[in-house]
Amino acid sequence: AGGTLYFGLSAEPSTLDTIIQPGTAGRTVKLAMHRGLVNYGIDGKISPELAESYEISPDAKEYTFHLRDAKFHDGSPVTAADVKASLERILDPKGKGAFRNELSIISGIDTPDVKTVTLKLSQPSVSLMGYLALPESVIVPAAWLAKNADNATASPIGAGPFQFVNWTRGREIVVKKFPGYYKQGKPDLDEVHYVFYGDENTRVNALKSGDVDIIEYVPAKDATALEKGPDTKLLTMNGPFMGLQFNTKFEPFSKPEVRQAIAYAVDRSVIINTAFNGLGTPIYGIAIPEGYMGYSAEKANYFSHDIDKAKELLKKAGYPNGFEARLLASSQYSFHQNTAIAIQSELAKIGIKLTLDLPDWASRMAKANAGDYDFAVLGSLGEITDADWLSNYYYGGDKLVRTNNSPYFDDPQINEILDKGRATVDSAEREKIYGAFVDRALELSPLVFFMWRHQDYAVRTGVTGFTNMPGFLTFQSGFSIENTKIE
Amino acid sequence: MQTLSTFVIVVGARLATALVQLWVIATLVFSIMYIMPGDPVLLLLGPESHPSPEAVAAMRQQLGLDQPVLSQYLKWLGNAAVGDLGKSLDGYPVIEYVTASLPKTMELASAAILVAAIMGVPVGIAAALWRGRFLDGLLTSLSTLGISVPVYILGSLLILLVSLKLGWLPSSGYTDISRNAFLHFQKLTLPAVTLGLGLAASIARMTRSSMLEILSRDFVRSLRARGMRERRVIWLHVLRNAAIPIVTIVGLQLGNLMGGTVLVEALFNWPGLSTLLVTAVSNRNYPLVQGSIVTIAALFILINLCVDILYSLLDPRIRRKRA
Amino acid sequence: MKTFLPFRHPLVLVSLLVVTTVLGIALVGPVIAPHDPLAINQNAVNQASSTQYLLGTDEFGRDILSRLLVGIRPTIMVAVISTLIAAVGGTAFGIIGAYSRPVMAFFVMRAVDIMLSFPAILLALLAVGFWRSGIASLSVVIGIIFIPQFARVAQSATLQVIRQEFVEAEHAMGARYLRVVFKAILPNILSPLVVQGTLTIAAAILLESGLSFLGLGIVPPEPSWGQMIGTARGYLNQNPMYVVWPSVCLAFTVLAINILGDALRDHLDPRLREN
Amino acid sequence: MPGREILKIDNLSVAFRTEAGLRPAVNGVSLSLVSGEILGLVGESGSGKTILSLAAMGLLPQNAVVTSGRVEFAGADLLTARPDVLRKLRGKRISMIFQDPMASLDPVFRCGDQIVEAILLHERMTRRQARERALELLQKVGIADPARCLRSYPHELSGGQCQRVMIAMAVACKPDVIIADEPTTALDVTVQKQVLNLLRGLNREIGAAILLITHDLGVIYEVADRVAVIYHGDLMEEAATADLFAAPCSDYTKALIASMPSASAPQSRLPVITRDGSGMISSAAEDRPAAKPKPAINGASEPLLHIRDLTKSYWVRENALATPRAFRAVDNVSLAIPPRSTLGLVGESGCGKSTLSRLVMRLIEPDDGAIEFDGRNLISLGREEMRAARRDMALVFQNPYGSLNPRQTVTDLVAAPIDIHQGGRDREAAVAKLMDAVGLPRNAMKRYPHEFSGGQRQRIVIARALALKPRLLICDEAVSALDVSVQAQVLNLLQDLQDEFDLTYLFISHDMSVVRHVSDMIAVMQKGRIVEAGPAGEVFDNPKAEYTRTLLSAVPKIGNADPIALEAH
Ligand SMILES: Nc1ncnc2c1ncn2[C@@H]1O[C@H](COP(=O)(O)OP(=O)(O)OP(=O)(O)O)[C@@H](O)[C@H]1O
Ligand SMILES: Nc1ncnc2c1ncn2[C@@H]1O[C@H](COP(=O)(O)OP(=O)(O)OP(=O)(O)O)[C@@H](O)[C@H]1O
Ligand SMILES: [Mg+2]
Ligand SMILES: [Mg+2]
After folding, report:
1. Which of B4, A361, D487, A457 is nearest to C213 (CA)?
2. The CATH number of domain B101-319 is 3.30.70.2190
């Protein structure tokens, strides 16, 4: 038992500030050092962490958490005050909390005693639990915050299984076992080195040659080889989806028929076989994973690959001969670029001529945020497992251009359904509501989905206990480092 | 005394120009970064987050990005003038990043240049001496391979062979020399050889050409007439006369190695300046881009200065009398 | 009548053949390509050579041979145009930097230093900001990137040449600046320039793939050699021939150019010319 | 002392590969060199003397092939010997002084280091000892400032100084055979004497055999034991010196002796060697109409070139760190040359003659003084005016090879002034005429400088300088590499041009008889200063300065005849 584990990250985290969503690499490191009141556990369910237990009021407007006897890395106990301070920091309207918007329904935080925290909500929400379970909602000491909230260079302190040792810029972050972790016998490892491997081929080679023990973001083209071993094992999971977001401000993509036509026209298997080396699962409906609320087997095949139908829809929309458009993707990630190329060739078959716009990722993000595109390749997932993740993609409201939505898409009916779904506690009732959502969403198809892509980790044989968490949670798999053992 | 002071004046003048050059570069970079599409705040706040306008504004303010460009520029310049390269957008001082990656880059660059020169010069000489013969053809072909096979592929092949198949050397990474010197040099070997092989080819080409130029001079004949060993004729006299183009290309390469080795650094996960620069650019981390480019430029200018000095050491005729 | 090249050497003849073939294909490539270079075949991804696909297929199941043939044109255009830009611009800067009034020379060379230390990636990003991606912008950017290197090579060689007596003799005859440059300096610095030129051609082709990463380059899915090599490197394990074919084509072209360059270089040196 | 035969050249033939097939340069020449003797080798410029000696050293140019013969040295055939055998012989047992000293020194090493290196190649001693030896050798070859010379790079030395560095290296290891190819072309007569004595000394001391190639028949007469005459690659005759001068056998030799400038009256036409239709070689001076009368020398007329108080210093260093010290190469020189006259400038090697000529052309800027050309002070001229002014001035550089662009053909080289100032009008025809005038074959026009002999290169440079018939022509040792016949041809040409086009010459030479022959006035220079100047007759007959007298007394004589005295008649 014990030992040092080398973890090949896909990038250097831009920050370790807990309330920022820094991407997978940053989350992985965060989850080694920090715990929230609750977190998503390896089974994909909400797992009580710093909160031993919690209750939700029947109207879903009051959440009460009972803290356990946990300690921070500096030895101080985890108290209600720390929780309050941590959450308040997220809620700061001028703060940079990534999920401030989602959590802003918290209208009050009460701390009746040191071990109890009560959250009051301005409106009922059942999705709150999911957001509290995110790595961005972890608890850090109030005293540390008071001193270091604005000091990005301070050594982080949390209540997680590992404590921060150092961060060698450009190279690695090292954490070591926190002996005072509240779970008995965990973690097993003495030390974890999170080494940054920006290049995917290098990362794979590092695993193969034994330089590292675990890597994230296994490129599709190497998955089979790593799966075969002999020294390596693949932890595979369907995680994110690939699709298209449309700028609905102007024609042709303001017309639902055009969007549907595209959904019919694209042969999913072309994308999977070319851009993803055959690994992936087609989506012919909405990207709701099986088992998640809103999933319906019958709607899962709403679209099919049907060129004639696509042409017909185009004709109906007034484009019998197709049209020209620009598709935004990014050359920085080959799967984005390749998806775009595959789509380009598929759409050519119904007369849609595409020019590809393939800038680097930063420019792509800037364009996405400005809504400066005709339509764009979307590769993403839901942050939480609760059905409310859909809001981020479909909700209209006051901010019509976001990273992940279809710009200027604002359907009152969908907005209403999403609001209702969030506030409904009864799950049978919710099931119905989201059923209605799916119908409407397919009808309007502001987003078109093509496939689930694999999100894989690979480990060297001898590494056990690391779990690629299911569905949307794959990006939070870093949580399982507390269970990880190395021979 | 007088020489010393002229020397001081000459070098001083060149250093002063260097500062001006750095200023020009910094200014250019500054302008480019603002023209370039992309917003650092969006990237900083996380790719998947959907920051509220307030949060974005707050962040901008915190980073000073809300100020007019001119005042940001002047502020940066003011700090840079006193040696403060400012803070990276993630809060760490830029200088910390730079000092972390600079020695690694310099180490890799020197090792690569060493490999390149040790291989390139003899190959070039051999090709020149056997001009038009089989060996020349062979060496020309080999060095052409070196030029036309991208380093990245060369490196991948080396890793495949040396590291994955044979298991002789680690495939990637960096170990501090203080922690494990052996491992340190093991990890240096492959990237240095990869870079070196590519560069060796160009050095060989230039050496061949330059040697041929000198070999046909009359003085070579008189050296031989004195009974000098061919080795000495070639390696001392001809090479020294042929050195200037070779030194030029080595200097150019050394400069390029300061900021142009992204692919090799990525392939071997070598945490050098190029990687720093590219990451900084792709994150639109303005201060870091500024800092790394200014550092790279300073190195470049220094190298060029050395090369210029070397010219006059190598060829007395280039020495200029300055009034 | 001067004979232009020492054509007689078999190696030179072969190289000439290779280069003319490449140029020829650049003209007629799309016509002789057996397949549509853009046609995706999802059932034939990353295949080895077969009768249908002579050189196998790429990650989209596209015919590598067709892509190679069609990709020559942009590749060669970018390589040649950018090398020309770099050679003309760089040589001019270099000669001015060595053979002009000291103040002028000093400033030119310091400007070259600045260009030299200015990272390619920024220049490329700037270009992306201003221009549409394409052969023209790409060639200009790559040309500019290589200008300072040429300039240093030209400058160092010029420094050596202008100290020689025959340059003094030109002055003594009252030669104008341009005559000295074209008659005395250029012919005598040509050999390092020819070498630098052949190096630049190869480097330009490879850089093109590097820049496509920034969205500046031949826009995919249009093929070019540089881009093929750049993409293929990711498939080294799976489809090793994918990287081999474009690399081999590039290597042979560059080899031929190098041999022609050597021949030209040796030919221009009357002391080496085969009699 | 009957010497033994050391070097034996047996039926040696060398040819050059050219586009038109093999072009023979040396045809079946047999020579043998006996220890303790000096064999003089004379012959027309371009007749194959250098090639013959290079063949003997195994150092032929790449495009040369030996078509027949042997070169035997110490029992081995040098033509087929293994490289390492050859290497051990070269420098140590058989050494060579090359014709063009500037081109034969490595430009990037200090002369001292090169001599030391040459010594250490074959002698076991410390660097320090070698250095002392080098210093001593330089003193022996008459270098006034040997320490500075050791520290200098070749380009910082005068032509004569470089030549002596070469000589020092060649004799450093006391070889058995020394091949001296025109070893004194750039040396004034006093130094020449000193160098010849050094060679003689070696010859006596260790019995070294010397093959002395020279055009200066006086030198041959004074030092050579035997003489071989070569013409067009064929050995014409070989005889003891006295016999040869007394009774030359071959027509060529007879013609050669008859063509010496010392044998003619000053400014008269010199006889040149011609071959008539039947192949008969003879020496003849064709007459031409009487020249216009010369202007009076003691100058009512305004001088064309008037140099006033010209001064130029070079900065030299004692050592790498030392403060540079000014070294006055030209010190307060004043000269006046009337139009249509010739000023002969003679002086010690290294005294600043070439520097002066460069100053006049403004190739280097003087520290002080004025250069008036046709009434205008050149120093005040702007760049463009100076450029235009150079149409009327031309300089024949001392190092012909160095001043020829190696990448231009003779046509382009010679036509350069025409291209520059006349847009290349009728260049081909003009060049062809010039080639004839300097005695080069027309087929040379397409060739490159490296394909020529020393004297041929010199003629190319002269042809170039004459292309536009400049008003002022500065000749810096312009005829030093020419055999007497070609020399005569060139001197006649200069004479004719002067008569016809009123050319003015500044004629720098160390060959007193040539100077005497061409000059109206003479200036004598030493250590950067003019020590004496005046009408030619006066200076020669009645030298005032001490140095002039030394100079005149050192002129090699043929028989009892004083060549300069001969001139006087
Ligand atoms: N590299 C060469 N290629 C072709 N021809 C050459 C070459 N070198 C010399 N020659 C020719 O060979 C002939 C003999 O040359 P060589 O140098 O031996 O003459 P030389 O007797 O030494 O004359 P000089 O007294 O002028 O030095 C000349 O006609 C010359 O043009
Ligand atoms: N670039 C230089 N730097 C330093 N000293 C120089 C330089 N050029 C020439 N000299 C020195 O100046 C003096 C004059 O040289 P110059 O070439 O004018 O002599 P010269 O009279 O032409 O001699 P020669 O008859 O040997 O050709 C010499 O002593 C020489 O060493
Ligand atoms: Mg000769
Ligand atoms: Mg001189």
Report:
1. A361
2. no
Cα D17 to ligand 1 centre (Å):
13
Q: Which among B222, B226, B317 is the nearest to D121, CB-wise?
A: B226
Instruction: Quickly state the pLDDT bin for D56 (edges 50, 70, 90).
Output: confident
Cα gap D565→D562, rounded to integer Å: 5
Q: What confidence score (pLDDT) does residue C3 get? A: 38
Here the tokens at position D375 are 């009434």
Is D8 an 8 Å CB contact of chain B? no
Judged by CB atoms within 8 Å, which residues 43-62 of B form the interface with A?
A: 43-55, 57-59, 62
Q: What are the DSSP E strand ranges found in D348-418?
A: 368-373, 376-377, 393-396
Dist. CA A35–CA A137, nearest whole Å: 8
Q: Please list the residues that pair with A353 across neighbouring strands.
A: A324
CATH 3.40.50.300 fits D305-552, yes or no: yes
Q: Decide if D405 touches C, using CB distance below 8 A.
A: yes
Query: Which chains contact C through at least 3 pairs of Cβ atoms less than 8 Å apart?
Result: A, B, D
Indicate the angle between helix axes B134-148 and C186-212, nearest 10 degrees: 40
The four Cα atoms C32, C36, C38, C44 give a dihedral, to 10 degrees, of: -120
Closest alpha carbon to D256 in D233, D236, D240: D236
- Chain A contacts of B58, Cβ < 8 Å? 94-96
CATH class of C6-245+256-268: mainly alpha
Does ligand 2 lie within 6 Å of residue D312's CB atom? no
Give how far Cα C30 sits from Cα of B292, C71, C83, Å.
44, 9, 24
Q: Identify which of B40, B46, B164 has the shortest CB distance to residue A98.
A: B46
Q: What is the CATH number of domain D5-258?
A: 3.40.50.300
How close is the nearest chain B Cα to the Cα of A91, in Å? 11
D412 touches chain C (CB under 8 A): yes
In this complex, is the C-beta atom of B34 within 8 Å of any C-beta atom belonging to chain A? no
Name residues whose C-beta falls within 8 Å of residue D477's C-beta, 6 or more positions apart in sequence.
Answer: D159, D185, D186, D398, D508, D509, D510
Tell the burial category of A400 from Cβ atoms under 10 Å away from its Cβ (0-12, 13-18, 19+).
middle
| Other CB atoms within 10 Å distance of the CB of residue D387 | 18
pLDDT single digits (tens) B103-139? 888 899 999 999 999 999 999 999 888 887 788 888 8
Helices B151-158, B181-215: inter-axial angle, 10-degree rounding: 130
Report the C-alpha gap between A86 and A100 in whole angstroms: 12
Closest partner CB to C152 (pick from B248, B281, B301): B248
- Band (pLDDT 50/70/90 cuts) for residue B1 is very low
Q: At what angle do helices B239-259 and C102-117 cross, to 10 degrees?
A: 50
The predicted-structure confidence for D429-483, as pLDDT tens digits, reads as follows 999 999 988 888 888 888 899 889 888 999 999 999 999 889 999 999 888 888 8
B206 and chain C: CB distance < 8 Å anywhere?
Answer: yes
HSE-up of residue D282 (Cα within 13 Å, Cβ side): 8
Distance, in Å, from the CA atom of D430 to the CA atom of C189, rounded to the nearest integer, reads 29
Q: Which helix (H) or strand (E) holds D151?
A: helix D146-151
Query: Where are the domains positioned within chain D?
Result: 5-258, 305-552
Q: CA Rg, chain B, in Å?
A: 24
Cβ of C117 within 8 Å of Cβ of B25? The answer is yes
Q: Which chain C residues contact residue D403 at CB under 8 A?
A: 165-166, 168-169
Domains of chain B, residue spans: 2-81, 101-319
- Count of CA atoms in the C-beta half-sphere (13 A) of D171: 29
A50, β-bridge pairs: none
Which residue from B319, B114, B124, B119 is spatially nearest to B210, judged by alpha carbons? B124
